[in-house]
Amino acid sequence: MNEKAQREAVAAEARKWLRTPFHHGARIRGGGADCETFIGEVFAAAGVFTAEGIPYIPEQWFLHSKEELYLNYLSRYASEYVIGPWPLAVGQSEAALSGQRPTTNSQRLPLPADIICVKSRWVYSHGAIVLAWPQVIHCFPPCVMESNAHYNPVFRGHEIKFFDPWAKK
Q1: Which residues have C-beta within 8 Å of that of residue 129, sequence separation ≥ 6?
Q2: Which parts of the chain have pLDDT scores under 50?
Q3: What is the pTM of this model?
């Protein structure tokens, strides 16, 4: 399966998880998940990377620690890149890229199935899957939902890192 087909498979699988309740540490579609297990299970079901080794991260570690547990996990499977310009208009990403994916660490726009990670307090502690920038899907109480990253307060005004799982292969 080529990269484009895999990205489409990730988005399709992620949408199957819509309305799955938030339950810290769970990883069952329709039963419960958190933002980390949701991402791991979606990418595993789409055949991009394995969900094996998803570490247990205490529910409120980000309130009491400066250890980047979430980024450490995510960095095993994806490479960080810089986007530009910010903020982007709805639907701008694919048209602006003209179908070309820049090399790792170059400045580019998010593609479907890229992962974003949001800083809360001292550490990056929440993740989401890009559907069509700035539309993302993520697991945040009460459930898995689609959101516009420009307007949702979980993302707006917070530091965000962008990751490409295909650049890591």
Answers
A1: 10, 11, 14, 39, 42, 113, 114, 115, 136, 137, 138
A2: 87-105
A3: 0.85
